[in-house]
Amino acid sequence: MGLTKSEIFTDEQNRLASLFKVLGHPARIAILQYIINQKACICNDLVDVLGLAQATISQHLKELKNIGIIQGTIEGKSVCYCIEEKKWKEIQNLFNLFFEQDVKVGQCC
Amino acid sequence: MGLTKSEIFTDEQNRLASLFKVLGHPARIAILQYIINQKACICNDLVDVLGLAQATISQHLKELKNIGIIQGTIEGKSVCYCIEEKKWKEIQNLFNLFFEQDVKVGQCC
DNA sequence: ATTTAATATCGCAATATTACGATATTAAAT
DNA sequence: ATTTAATATCGTAATATTGCGATATTAAAT
User: Fold this and answer.
1) Which residues are CB-contacts of B52 (< 8 A; sequence separation ≥ 6)?
2) A44-73 per-residue burial string, b: 16 or more CB within 10 A, e: under 16
3) Which of A72, B44, B70, B97 has the most CB atoms in a 10 Å sphere around its CB?
């Protein structure tokens, strides 16, 4: 066990969950906020600012890149990371769609 | 290792990440969607509908209850679960605030 | 009182995640 | 050509999560 049974869920549920999951770590939230404030940054900036090892930051950046929410451009010997605005808004939209499924609830219990 | 270093992040970052994290599993997304569609449900309904064991569903319900996004009311020998609308909207709001931090980005790289 | 039904909790095995040191890789600087 | 700097990747240890069977617990039904 320990294996999430993705087969039994819809693609939509799996996709949505995997987006939430990537944002479900404070280091990745901190990275995104830093990139937003600075407009862009390189990996080493983050190593200095957050107190995590270079290998760890690099790994988190990779996960963020995987869902497309950030983009990295090689610039000499460093890589410039910035927000991929289109994907950013797309994800925000997806989340809002999820939260706006008719909650016609009312206090039923 | 394997221990998230929460001390080095702000409370806001930790709180936000932990909310995302709870939504970062397809079973919990599926549970929320089912509750919304049915307006309410009991644990056994979910066991029947999703293909997971009772112990597993109960565990997921507990995590959802922990962040306050659902509420459980004892009703005879079963427990009626429903969406806690207030918290639901609060979380949606928090997420939107996160996504609306000035993304004045523009393609910088 | 006993049985039945619904749920919660415990304990455990399998897998995943987090973090980091060590080691590539690559490009600029000397 | 060598050195320096920035990043990525590999391997590994520590911890967390997922899932489930077994076992409580609790309340209704018989």
Assistant:
1) A5, A8, B27, B46, B60
2) ebbbeebebeeebbeebbebbeebebbbbe
3) B70
For A:41-70, CB contacts with B below 8 A are 50-52
Distance D12 C1' – B34 CA (angstroms): 41
What value does the mean pLDDT take over residues A70-86?
Answer: 97
Look up the CATH number of domain B11-96: 1.10.10.10
Helix (H) or strand (E) holding B79: strand B78-83
Name chain A contacts of B102, Cβ cutoff 8 Å. Answer: 36
Residue B103 pLDDT > 80: no
Name the CATH code of domain A11-95 (choices 1.10.10.10, 3.30.450.40, 2.40.50.100, 2.20.70.10).
1.10.10.10
Give the pLDDT score at B106.
Answer: 55
Q: Residue ranges per domain, chain A?
A: 11-95
